[in-house]
């Protein structure tokens, strides 16, 4: 039995499971992960033994997309919101053990959480001294996605994916 990183799914006790390169023969190459996923889905829909298939991202890149400008207002609002959530959680827990069943612990937790969240966010943003005045989201992407298959079924997979590529506009390898 194998896992997505290769090797045994259950390593011997006491031994670390180290990443290993994927195995198999290339049966398709795609520009996007969505296309590679569609190819493997096609194989699965055709009752192909997909346990022999691996999608491999090649030429990996870390892409950081800038979402917007970071201002003191956004920093404080974000800190207050995240602190309020934590405060709400703590307040709810305290209200469970409140003998009179009032909503006061919830309100106190919410308010104090918002204040502490704003303070911690302000300290963090102030410490950066304007070196990073933007928000961003990072993701790992590949230049291309190869579909590999174990040799025993690679030719069959290649034929099935070739038929898929011929039958659909813009798809394939």
From TrEMBL:
The chain crosses the membrane at residues 75-97, 103-125. Residues 1-22 are annotated as: Disordered. The keyword RNA-binding does not apply. Pfam families: YflT. It comes from the Bacteria. Residues 13-22 have a biased composition (Pro residues). The keyword Secreted does not apply. Keywords: Membrane, Transmembrane, Transmembrane helix. Residues 27-100 form the General stress protein 17M-like domain. This is General stress protein 17M-like domain-containing protein. It comes from Pseudonocardia ammonioxydans.
């Amino acid at each position: 039995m194998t896992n997505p990183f290769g090797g045994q799914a259950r390593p011997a006790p006491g031994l670390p499971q180290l990443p290993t390169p994927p195995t198999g023969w290339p049966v398709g190459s795609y520009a996007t992960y969505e296309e590679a996923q569609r190819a493997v889905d096609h194989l699965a829909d055709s009752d192909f033994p997909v346990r022999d298939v691996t999608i491999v991202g090649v030429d990996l890149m870390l892409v950081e997309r800038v979402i917007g400008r970071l201002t003191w207002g956004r920093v404080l609002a974000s800190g207050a919101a995240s602190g309020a959530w934590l405060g709400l959680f703590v307040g709810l827990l305290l209200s469970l053990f409140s003998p009179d069943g009032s909503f006061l612990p919830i309100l106190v937790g919410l308010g104090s959480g918002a204040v502490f969240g704003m303070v911690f966010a302000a300290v963090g943003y102030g410490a950066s001294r304007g070196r990073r005045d933007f928000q961003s989201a990072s993701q790992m992407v590949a230049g291309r996605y190869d579909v590999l298959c174990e040799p025993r079924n690679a030719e069959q997979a290649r034929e099935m994916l070739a038929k898929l590529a011929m039958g659909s506009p813009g798809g394939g390898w």
